[in-house]
# Entry
Amino acid sequence: MTHLTDEHVDVYSYQAKKEGNYHCGDAYYYISDGSRLFVVVADGLGSGLCKTISRSCY
# Structure
């Protein structure tokens, strides 16, 4: 589990691969600059190594 905290918010994130796969195709990104929180979640990209590689292009 990944954790980001600042003065106003705590963000926790977790990824899980499908049973039988070694990689997860879902992606997330978040960053806070102290006054704003930016969160991007990409769900439904698929599963497996090919999708893991393709999500890293964003």
Remarks:
- The radius of gyration is 13 Å.
- Residues 49-55 form the longest helix (7 residues).
- The chain has a mean pLDDT of 74.
- Residues 2-55 form one domain.
